[in-house]
Amino acid sequence: MTVTQAWTEIGHLADLTPGEGRTYVVNGRQIAVFLLGDGTVRAVDAVCPHKGGPLADGQTDGTVVVCPLHLYAFALADGSCADDVGAVRVYPAMVNGDRIFLEPI
């Protein structure tokens, strides 16, 4: 992916720790952003649809993030959850140089 004017810069790559998440507010929406072990970033809604848990505080294995409140796992690829608690929105994210960008929301 290449950055165009439409992408939104949200922060620096150095602000993220591999395997951990951080919440950013973009256009009034809370987004959980994760740096994976391969250097890519993934972004999903930061609030669990079940009981509002903070997904950025959840554990990730690179394919899912697990809500720290009730252990529901959400796929980082499409936001789906195997349990019937709803899904989270996934946002296209990328790294360009030392900066993190999201596609427009």
From TrEMBL:
Residue intervals of the Rieske domain: 8-102
One term of GO molecular function: monooxygenase activity
Keyword set includes Iron: yes
Alphabetized SUPFAM superfamilies for the sequence: ISP domain
Keyword set, alphabetical order: 2Fe-2S, Iron, Iron-sulfur, Metal-binding
Iron keyword on record: yes
Cross-referenced InterPro entries: Rieske_2Fe-2S (IPR017941), Rieske_2Fe-2S_sf (IPR036922)
Pfam families for the chain: Rieske
PANTHER family named among the record's database cross-references: 3-PHENYLPROPIONATE_CINNAMIC ACID DIOXYGENASE FERREDOXIN SUBUNIT, FERREDOXIN-RELATED
Protein name according to UniProt: Nitrite reductase (NAD(P)H) small subunit
Organism: Antrihabitans stalagmiti
Lineage, broadest ranks: Bacteria, Bacillati, Actinomycetota, Actinomycetes, Mycobacteriales
